[in-house]
Putative PIG3 family NAD(P)H quinone oxidoreductase (Prauserella shujinwangii), 324 residues
Amino acid sequence: MRAIMIREPGGPENLEWTEVPDPVPGPGEVLLDVAASAVNRADLLQRQGHYPPPPGASEILGLECSGTIAELGEGVTGWQVGDEVCALLAGGGYAEKVAVPAVQLLPVPGEVKLLAAAGLPEVACTVWSNVVMHAGLGEGDVLLVHGGAGGIGTHAIQVGKALGATVAVTAGTGDRLERCRQLGADIVINYREQDFVAELRKEAGGADVILDNMGAKYLGKNVDALATGGRLVVIGMQGGVKGELNIGKLLTKRASIAATGLRGRPVEEKGEIVAAVREQLWPLVERGSVRPVIDQVVSLGKAADAHRRLEEGGVFGKVLLAVS
Ligand SMILES: NC(=O)c1ccc[n+]([C@@H]2O[C@H](COP(=O)([O-])OP(=O)(O)OC[C@H]3O[C@@H](n4cnc5c(N)ncnc54)[C@H](OP(=O)(O)O)[C@@H]3O)[C@@H](O)[C@H]2O)c1
């Protein structure tokens, strides 16, 4: 098969579309003919040599894909050759074929096209596991989503609204804020020009749940933005890894902070998340309350262009990589 390989750690020019051996599905796995993959911010770090795959995972980039089942490994039940699916991957998505544990498969939901489904597994599993399974977002809660215009953010807005929350977002320009509003965001905050803590307090009091991509840079401000009993979930470190925490403020608010990563979790845990997504989030996608948000489709052989696009900024939603 052909796949995108990293010639050496560095810039997008080091991504090479080349022949590699086909993957072989092990017990409990299926082989997919990939229709499309999608770019994640973690892929940029992996390309630069800063985010190696977890033990046992493919060296090939790509944390999600859509495609058709070509072969069932030993012991796989509940799926057939020819089924159209999308999949959460630990790696290997930037390729014509990928082997994936069957528990990480999801059916292509409702009216969603096979190609577009490639951009759903990573955002769906990340948002659902953090905002709902961990932080317990409920109807009437206030959800603050940092980076509302990104892949994760555009999905989190829709999930928050579908669950009956008031959704506030931060984004970098007025145009992006307006597009977040069109997706359902109730409160939009320009992080370049406005103080998100003051804006959130003015508009909604405080946040019951915060989904944070910034890490250290926003740690103190996020604690200030939490409501009593609020839950801060950190999933990104775009603003660094070491911050200062005022435990007194956390204690007074009886608030909590968690940080989670999806990729390194054992297959069983990913399977539990995928099962919850299928049971509870997929019905929202099937009835159109939550849709894939696609900025651009690039052919997989030109993955370097897609990486440049994400690095330049200004992507709204996801950039997909189509195989054909
Ligand atoms: N832990 C996990 O399991 C997990 C899983 C998936 C993703 N992630 C992480 O989640 C984050 C978002 O992923 P993604 O796929 O949505 O990436 P993305 O599409 O590249 O979006 C990144 C977003 O960061 C925003 N941003 C930049 N500076 C900001 C600031 N100072 N304040 C608020 N927002 C700011 C950008 O907003 P503008 O473009 O509007 O400036 C952009 O929308 C990344 O850090 C990614 O690594 C973690």
